[in-house]
Amino acid sequence: MRIAQIILRVISMPLKSPFHTHLGSVTEREGIIVEVIDSNGISGYGEGVAFSTPWYTEETVATSLHIMSDVLIPLLKKRPIKHPEDAAILFQSIRRNHMAKAGLEMAIWDLYAKRNSTSLSNVIGGTRSEIASGVVVAADSLISSLNQIEKYLEEGYRRFKIKINPNQDYAVLAEIRRYYPELPIMADANSAYTLNDMDRLKALDDFNLLMIEQPLASDDIIEHALLQNEINTPICLDESIVGFNDAKNAIELGSCKIINIKAGRVGGLYEAKRIHDYCLDRGIEVWCGGMIEFGISRAHNIALASLPGFTIPGDISASNRFWEEDIITPEVCVKNGFVSVPSTPGIGFSINEKRLQETTRFKKAFKFENK
Asked: What is the mean pLDDT of residues 241-254?
């Protein structure tokens, strides 16, 4: 695989409506679009999913851009690769910065699949032709939450994630359950609680939740094990799992019963597959989370979620969930609660060049010398 050029673009796009959590609200989304071009002119695309500020992880668009430009791309120039896994292993010499690594590695996976005239899903071992789709309910009031649920039910979504925090949990979930007693719902805390809230978290067992996601600290697996031992609701770890070893240790400690695998968070598809395979062997359920991403990352998530262990509907919603117009064509659509897994080469979507150009705020090309 001879890389001829890598192009980095920082794009920015307003959300159709604000995305609210207790950590803050997102109204404008920045991201890094990675294009890796080989010597035959074939392009593979990836997406750096860090946010503008470090509210979700320590990485930001600015830090990811720096690591890609000044560290990872120079590594690729020095050490040519034959397979996407080579890039993932090469990047292990750099500590953390998983989102920067993922953006480049996933673009290389797309390029590799296209060069081999097969779908990304097929290349990584996917077994599904369609995946069940879930959605996040992130509103600033109970009325707004109920309105969102009604709208998403009409659109066919199969699982509903409710954002909670100590100021907005039991009463909100009780009201949602009053209207929708059988609705498949889970709660996402984004690390809003501590072990001092044990009784409060135990009380959520009343609602027959699919899971409670990341209730405690984002870098913790010890206290989550103590909590899981005390509550019936399965704990799902998200932010705590930034690599294979985190998943392995959490499972061995009994810190969770479910893991949310985000390729963009754990460093790319190679690491995401390792986590998936380990969980599948040990009967740990997994699902694919979302990052308010654009269509390129969403396309990679679709391929990832086609692997056999992804038994829970993921946060893979339609493009029009967030955007007036996405940067891919055709846009991702949800039909009767499912998203089709593309069978065409690579990620299976083309780039909406006009929309990409309209939203680009920064662009830089890195040329490779191929001898």
From this structure: 97
Report, as an integer, the average pLDDT of 90-99.
Answer: 97
Contacts of 22 (CB under 8 A, 6+ apart): 163, 165, 167, 168, 190, 192
- Classify domain 122-340 at the CATH topology level: TIM Barrel (3.20.20)
Query: Is 257 labeled as catalytic in the residue annotation?
Result: no
Tell me the H-state helices in the chain.
61-67, 73-78, 84-91, 98-115, 120-124, 142-154, 170-179, 198-203, 222-228, 244-253, 263-266, 269-281, 295-305, 353-359
CATH superfamily for domain 3-117+353-367: Enolase-like, N-terminal domain (3.30.390.10)
Catalytic residue among 16, 163, 202, 354: 163
Whether the upstream peptide bond of residue 330 has omega within 30° of 0, thus cis, is yes
Digit-coded pLDDT (tens) for 43-68: 999 999 999 999 889 999 999 999 99
The pLDDT of residue 20 is above 80? no
Distance CA 6, CA 95 (A): 22
Identify whether the C-beta of residue 260 lies closer than 8 Å to the C-beta of residue 231. Answer: no
Q: What is the pLDDT of residue 371?
A: 58
pTM: 0.94
Which residue of the set 101, 114, 161, 262 is catalytic? 262
Told to judge if 163 belongs to the known catalytic residues of this protein, a careful annotator would answer yes
Q: What is the pLDDT of residue 26?
A: 85
